[in-house]
Amino acid sequence: MNLKKMVAYKVAEEIKDGQVVGLGTGSTARYFIERVGMRIQKEELDILAVPTSYQSLFLARDWEIPITSITQHDIDVAVDGADEVDKDLNLLKGGGAAHTKEKIIDYSASEFIVIIDDSKLTDKLERPVPVEVIPTSSRLVCEELNSMGAKVKIRMSDAKDGPLITDNGNFIIDADFGSIDDPSKLEYEINNIPGVLENGIFSRGVDRVIVGTKDGIMEL
């Protein structure tokens, strides 16, 4: 049973004519985009979409989903996945290195829906926190994150020699703090480091978390 596909398709059925929809990035969001595209083709669903990455932009174009931008339209609903979701609905995102634009779009939406399978649920966030940084600041940011108790490494690219480069032309530092007791505080503190563009902790703005499980779909 493909739990990601099940939950993504379910939420895609909730999208209504006239909405401006934020399209998330990642494997679960990919199924959501796919299903929205199917509905446009079969039902003539009339929406505009704001992608959170080149990945979601290219996929949306493949499905002939009309594209707009956050500079042109307010977003009615954003639908995105997550790498981890804790019991207080804090998120950890950025495995796909798209968390900066995801946060801009997800936080600005009138409704922010998170779609995951139940393997992403956790009591506390504990994966390394992705931190997008201006390349020239990377050494200084690493030192500051180290002083805050994190083990850090610059994320390397699988497709080329050297660091992964984000859609914004920056580096990603993965900062391992272990179990995170206060996600909101840590999100704020990391973003106050000079050279940091954005980090992958999402501590506010989540309206609904829809979870695919082997027993069906549940909502947190």
Explain what the structure shows.
The protein is of the alpha/beta class. It has 2 domains: 3-122 and 203-215, Rossmann fold (3-Layer(aba) Sandwich); 129-199, 2-Layer Sandwich (Alpha-Beta Plaits). Helix content is 30%, strand content 25%. The protein has 6 helices and 13 strands. It has helices at residues 3-12, 27-43, 54-62, 99-108, 138-147, 183-191, and strands at 20-23, 48-51, 77-80, 84-85, 91-92, 111-117, 129-133, 151-154, 171-176, 196-199, 201-202, 208-213, 216-219. It has a 6-stranded mixed β-sheet, with helices on both faces. Helix 2 (27-43) links the parallel strand 1 (20-23) and strand 2 (48-51). Helix 1 packs across helix 2 (27-43). The longest helix has 17 residues, at 27-43. The mean pLDDT is 96.
Please name the defining characteristics of this protein.
6 helices; alpha/beta; 13 strands; six-stranded mixed sheet; Rossmann fold; 220 residues; single chain; Alpha-Beta Plaits; four-stranded antiparallel sheet; globular; 2 domains
Outline of this structure?
Its EC number is 5.3.1.6. The chain has 220 residues and is of the alpha/beta class.
